[in-house]
Amino acid sequence: MAHKECHDVGQWVSENVTQQVEQCVEQDCDWWCLCCNKWLCFLAWVVVVVVTWVVTTVCEIVGDVIDLAANIVRGLIDIVVGIFTLDWSRIVAGFGEIVGGVIAFVGELIPIALGLTFVGAFVDAGEAWALRRYVRRLLTSTYGESDPDGLQQMLTALGLSGGGGFGFRLEALARRSFIRSDFAPRGAATPALVGWVANGLDLKMLAGFTRPLWWDRGWPELVADGGGDISESDIDAYIAAGGQGEGVKQFSLFAMSTSDLRSRLDCADAHSSELGLIFRWTVEDTMLEQQNQVVVDRNAFPPVLPESPFGRIQSSADPAGARGEVAKPLSIAGFGFLDGTGMGISAHLADATILEPDDSGSTDFPGQGITGTDFRYRKPDIAFKYTAIHEIGHTFGLGHVDGLLRIMYTNADDAHKSIASGSSWWQYLTHGLEAGFILDEGKKAWDYIVANVDASRLETRAF
Questions:
Q1: How far apart are CA 388 and CA 432, in angstroms?
Q2: Does 8 score more than 80 pLDDT?
Q3: 22 bridge partner residues
Q4: Which of 31, 93, 274, 283 is buried most deeply by CB count within 10 Å?
Q5: Are 407 and 389 in contact (CB under 8 A)?
Q6: SS3 helix, strand, coil % of the chain, rounded to 5?
Q7: Helix locations, 199-257, DSSP H
Q8: What is the C-alpha to C-alpha distance for residues 427 and 410, in angstroms, rounded to an integer?
Q9: Cβ distance 396 to 350 under 8 Å?
Q10: Residue 276: φ, ψ to 5°
Q11: Predicted local distance difference test score (pLDDT) of residue 214
């Protein structure tokens, strides 16, 4: 949360000061004084970047201290709870949080102490400027002749002229998945969950009682109807009784806590500006109605999206509706995937090309005619907080890349991406351990947006 506040400070300065100064630099020269008007604006730009760096650096150091304290407290709680419940994976996770928190704290301070984040501040400001100029040129070349009036509306709506700050404002929806023990489809005699368990759903693992190794387990939220706790024996009794009968406890099982989901969305907000996107999230608790929505087959994800309760639109059924949903990102906070190791899955509307070729040398990224993402929760946050924004990156046509500190990096076996890259090392030296997007990814995302979002939507500022 502290880092989000630091980001918000920097974003406010960018939207209300930096961009205005940059527009000053871009004005025509006063040749009579050898462009003195532009030089003064450039000097003001430098001052703004330096002051912003000082303020945000102090804020980030405070945030790092808070994060370290929080990691230690969370780790100690997990260790104590794990000891009393004989949950050894939770004990190991607690030690992992503490050790990881200390390593992260030291790793964050090194680039700051060396003054390298000062360089990073100018790099960020320059790349943000470059992305805005790229988007302005892209829109002008696409709509300048065919719809000049519409172009001016786009530039205003996107904050490329006038005020308000640059960004494509998107009403985004995050659905926190849960299952109800007493949910039964119309006409069914027994709860759906009973049938799912009979069909192979491991409810005890899903509820956190049967625990895989700590780095691969989920952290669900189990809530009893009417309050109180649900024990492993209560789950056994529920299954044995077919979900019904006197003494059977009913419950709701959430894929993750609200705070865990919020941490992923905060991370998405912190990095969306690197792509020229601004989210306004609506968070809803969503009951799952089918077994294939609970533990998702990542190879068959797109067919899940049109079904209730998600109701996403397929381009084969409604091309205009499906295009409209590109500007309405969906992130499903889910329970996990059939392969047991996946962190997320995404479907994107249209064909795209990616920056770094796959193993076959191809840069093709075929679309699935529908949009939506699903991700699960894992600890520690320092490694897995990027899941939501990673999958949203796919929604806007971005592919996997090399480099651990690139948001679009993945360690999935089938992706064969290297943990190291020059851009990833540069990211560490200028930003610490925080992953990010690069300028070329922002350009790729906007190529995809302009190609697949209706002009009328680009002309409208959602908020």
A1: 21
A2: no
A3: none
A4: 93
A5: yes
A6: 50, 10, 35
A7: 203-206, 232-240
A8: 16
A9: no
A10: 75, 30
A11: 63
Which pLDDT score is estimated for 150? 96
Residue 61 to residue 83: CA distance in whole angstroms: 33
Q: Name all contacts of 95-103 with Cβ < 8 Å and 24+ positions apart.
A: 96/214, 96/215, 96/379, 96/380, 97/71, 97/72, 97/379, 97/380, 98/71, 98/72, 100/71, 100/380, 100/382, 100/383, 101/67, 101/68, 101/70, 101/71, 101/72, 101/75, 101/380, 101/382, 102/68, 102/71
pLDDT of 147-189, one tens digit each?
A: 999 999 999 999 998 767 899 999 999 999 999 999 999 888 8
Strand ranges (DSSP E) for 159-301? 168-180, 221-224, 251-254, 277-287, 295-296
Q: Residues, the chain, total?
A: 463
User: What DSSP designation does 433 have?
Assistant: T
- Helix H, strand E, coil C: the string for 10-46 is HHHHHHHHHHHHHHHHCCCCCHHHCCHHHHHHHHHHH
pLDDT (0 to 100) of residue 3: 62
Q: What's the mean pLDDT when you consider all of the chain? A: 90
Report the largest interatomic distance among the alpha carbons of the chain, rounded to a whole angstrom. 91
What tokens does 396 get?
């806007």
Which residue would you say has higher pLDDT here, 304 or 26? 304
pLDDT in tens, 435-446: 999 999 999 999
Cα-trace Rg, the chain: 24
Where are the alpha helices (H) located in 144-167, listed in sequence order?
Answer: 148-157
Q: The tokens of 450 are what?
A: 């302009």
pLDDT at 43 over 90: no
Name which of 242, 247, 260, 270 is nearest 379 in CA terms: 260
Per DSSP (E only), the strands in 209-266 are 221-224, 251-254
Q: What is the mean pLDDT of residues 330-345?
A: 91
The SS3 call for residue 375 is strand
Q: Is the pLDDT of residue 25 over 70?
A: no
